[in-house]
């Protein structure tokens, strides 16, 4: 029997996408799923044996089934202000990978936090934001288990200065949820290297908006394709459970999820978005690109 859909399960996330996302909460109880999901965290010599024993043939067979299913499993973590953080397994075509996106029903489409695919983008979360999303207790998502939520969002982490207790918290999750054979050593190694994006330095501006300095981060305002200012404020507020502050001369109601005039990934009302669009148009129109 199929599990009932959670209240916040998405029907459509992207503008030019017909939607259709599978609900497979049972994957979170499958050890081989976590071998796959956390693979980007296990790099640069981190022994996979620390995660626990596995049958290589069973692992390969599971991976083939996961990526050949073409049903796009999605896992949802509710955030403050009605926003949702979705972990989307894009297995419907050759461009496979895992998307970490934030959405609100009033938005035209979801905004990206991180991509765990051939072209990695991120990070998307600081440690405090990761644990805040894991611990917020909001209903309607795929699971309310804080440990499973933390591990589900872990590949999007990038934080150069995690707090002193981060290693112990992660080790407890790895031990209690996955039965890791070396949870302490694994947690320390993961926090030291932090996946493919590596650690970023986070800062908070006068309006309380959190941004980072990652060269491939959507939350770094210095990057050409950073999120619009209102989206940065809304996502930061949702991850820290507070009200988004208006940007510059915008009215407070403009920064509600249903009132933001900065259309996702468009040139509307966002000078940086307009500059990026002009740059991209010039680049793609040039018959001899400069690379």
From TrEMBL:
Basic and acidic residues biased stretches: 207-216, 240-257
Region (Disordered): 196-224, 239-267
Protein name: Uncharacterized protein
Organism: Streptomyces racemochromogenes
